[in-house]
Amino acid sequence: MSRAAAFLVDTSCLVAAICAWHHRHADSAGEIRRRRRLGERMVVAGHTVLEAYAVLTRLPSPHRVSPDTARQVVLATAGEALVTLQPSGYRSLLDQLAKGSVAGGRSYDALIAACALEARASVLLTLNEAHFRQFEVLGLKIVVP
Question: Which residue, among 114, 15, 46, has the nearest Cα to 124 in the 3D structure?
Fold first, then answer.
């Protein structure tokens, strides 16, 4: 499948798409639906699935959902689209992070971008544009719904 046929959804966009009360729900869910209608394949990083689960189960009341509900909605939304790196990909990513002096939370952004590239996605959907803009040099188009 060509790179133009796939897009990756990050945690911020996935949570917004799942939560109808979220102020960016319509934008995020709408952009995912639009791309799927065009025949694009959605992919989600393994890290994003766990992070979305963690967010959904720790939201402030009244938006917090039970662990089982979080599991169900995350898997229903992203379960078939899951992408992870091979063990050598994680080693390579760690080497690149250390070489580039990347530390802290930016490491997770790099992992998500690496998963997008692994899945041959050309677009990364996010509500955190500044976190991912640096990965455009790798061929990823950063799109904020």
Answer: 114
- Residue 57: inside a domain: yes
Q: Is residue 63 part of a domain?
A: yes
Q: What CATH number is attached to the domain comprising 116?
A: 3.40.50.1010
Amino acid in position 78: A
Q: Which pTM was predicted? A: 0.91
What does each of the 145 residues of the chain score in pLDDT, given as a tens digit?
444 589 999 999 999 999 999 999 999 999 999 999 999 999 999 999 999 999 999 999 999 999 999 999 999 988 788 999 999 999 999 999 999 998 899 999 999 999 999 999 999 999 999 999 999 998 999 999 9
Adjacency order of strands within the sheet including 82-83:
82-83, 41-45, 6-9, 123-125, 141-143
Domain count, the chain: 1
Least Cα distance to 90 among 119, 114, 125, 67 occurs for 114
Cα–chain center distance at 91: 20
| Amino acid at site 49 | V
Question: Could you list the residue range(s) of the whole structural domain that residue 18 is in?
Answer: 3-138
